[in-house]
Amino acid sequence: MNEKEVEILEILEENARVPMEVLADMVDLSVEKVEKIIKSLEEKDIILSYSSVINWDKTAGKDGVAAMIDVKVTPKREVGFDEIAERIYRFPEVKAVYLMSGAFDLSVQIEGKTMKEVAFFVSNKLSTLDSVLSTTTHFLLKKYKHDGVIFEPEQKDKRIVVSP
Amino acid sequence: MKQVQQQYLSKTASKLKPSGIRKFFDLASQMDNVISLGVGEPDFVTPWNVCEAGYASLESGYTAYTANAGLLELREEISSYLSEQFSLSYDAESQIILTVGASQAIDLAFRSIIDPGDEVIIVEPGFVAYAPAVTLAGGTPVSLETKAEDEFKLTRETLEKAITKRTKAILLCFPSNPTGATMSEEELQSVTDVIEKHDLLVLSDEIYAELTYDQTHYSIARLDGMKDRTILISGFSKAFAMTGWRLGYVTGPEEIIAAMLKIHQYTMMCAPTIAQHGALEALRNGRDDLEKMKKSYRQRRNYLVKAFNHIGLSCHMPGGAFYAFPSIQSTGMTSDEFAEKLLEEERVAVVPGHVFGAGGEGYIRCSYATSIESLQEAVKRIGAFVERHKAE
Ligand SMILES: Cc1ncc(COP(=O)(O)O)c(C=O)c1O
């Protein structure tokens, strides 16, 4: 991975919607070259998707609940944690799965429409998996910052408009 | 009443011209929806760890004066920083003073070296405070005009021409506000024998030293024979996004620093204590943030300069600082007209080049320390403006 590729990734991670011509100028390459680099990064699954960070709390009619579940599991010979992680992340309601160091093994993020739905997932789908030893569910109350994005940003530029 | 008040003013104060920037500040502040490329400071807020260090210093009760020259610990940190980053060696105890911004360092420097009648060469287009600071110290500022065709660098010929019998010092600022010009080791080397021949003192304002994008900064003080005749001025405002903390520093030959310290102790006592604690953290743990900000400036510079050339405002690629300095001569307007009309018609604030002294007319200063989205919008508006006025 060369410096320009990293730079392109950093810019896209911050703003995937930057126009191609602007991006090309920023990294001092031609548009064709940048397009080629991005295509190859996509093909290599380095760029996986382009998503938006949305504050759903500000929209009407899309209420839901989210929870982080600490999961303890028994790792399997040969495959370690990968197999059980895969069985968990295949559920569409699971938004994220991370292997953790410390008191538990997997951190599972889940989103559901209601608390009941999340509870049902934990008791009927997650806990019943063979290798799962225990779960601790924490409901998420408020998002302040997600993926580096602050949810109630203070937009105002505090600088005076013209200065020496 | 006004009349009466005026009679009390000193001749120096009443003759001092208000900065040409003021007018645009007044105009732009009254308008909505202005995109400002007129701001001479970073768009980043101070890195959080530095702010934390400021809080922590208050919590620990560091609310008193520091030593006149500043916290020794910080001077020691500056001394190793200058050595690591710029291969300069200055003694923490006898050669460094913390000041209230580079601004105070500039004032102190002139006040400690100027006698009435002394001339100081100011390389222009340049920062607006230099000439007034020379005047206030009782000296005579002499403009040295740099040219676009020299990429706004200082050359031997222009320097020779500006020197008279009364010339005492020359003020350099590379990377430059407003042109973004930088000078390499070789380019600096090419003027040192002229400086030595005329026995000039050099005031080198290197506040943008960290913000160079194509090659690392080289300080004139590193060149043979220069260290003993150079007062080096820098600060935390630009590189560490700390403009509001008001902290700068000055280093140089011991005797000159000692004279500056005398003035400093009577007129300022010391630089702000809280800012000194913040600066310690900035020097110890601020490198990653600095590099991130610098990368972002470089990307925005690349975009903006190409965009200007594209819409017909020819613009050299500035090597440092965060300003582009495009020529507006193709529009036939003066820089003042251009800036004023642009603000009225398109709500984009820029600074007309003439306020930066000789050689600035025909150019505008545009800061790219603004989000890439705002820069895109500004380019769109300036592009439309240029197109419309070309047609006239
Ligand atoms: C070239 C130059 N020198 C000095 C200063 C003043 O900086 P400080 O905030 O350290 O007083 C500025 C600020 O705009 C500048 O551009």
TrEMBL record, chain A:
GO terms for molecular function: sequence-specific DNA binding. The keyword Transcription regulation applies. InterPro entries: AsnC-type_HTH_dom (IPR000485), Dimeric_a/b-barrel (IPR011008), HTH-Siroheme_Decarb (IPR050684), Tscrpt_reg_AsnC-like (IPR019888), Tscrpt_reg_AsnC/Lrp_C (IPR019887), WH-like_DNA-bd_sf (IPR036388), WH_DNA-bd_sf (IPR036390). The keyword Glycosyltransferase does not apply. Transmembrane segments: none annotated. Gene3D superfamilies: 3.30.70.920, Winged helix-like DNA-binding domain superfamily/Winged helix DNA-binding domain. Residues 1-63 form the HTH asnC-type domain. Pfam families: AsnC_trans_reg, HTH_24. Keywords: DNA-binding, Transcription, Transcription regulation. It comes from the Bacteria. This is Lrp/AsnC family transcriptional regulator. It comes from Guptibacillus hwajinpoensis.
UniProtKB/TrEMBL annotation, chain B:
PROSITE patterns: AA_TRANSFER_CLASS_1. This is Aminotransferase. Belongs to the class-I pyridoxal-phosphate-dependent aminotransferase family. It is an enzyme of class 2 (transferase). NCBIfam families: PRK07682.1. GO terms for molecular function: pyridoxal phosphate binding; transaminase activity. Residues 33-382 form the Aminotransferase class I/classII large domain. It holds the Pfam family Aminotran_1_2. Its EC number is 2.6.1.-. InterPro entries: Aminotransferase_I/II_large, AspAT/PAT-like, NHTrfase_class1_PyrdxlP-BS, PyrdxlP-dep_Trfase, PyrdxlP-dep_Trfase_major, PyrdxlP-dep_Trfase_small. It comes from Guptibacillus hwajinpoensis. The keyword Transferase applies. Keywords: Aminotransferase, Pyridoxal phosphate, Transferase. Its cofactor is pyridoxal 5'-phosphate. GO terms for biological process: amino acid metabolic process. SUPFAM superfamilies: PLP-dependent transferases.
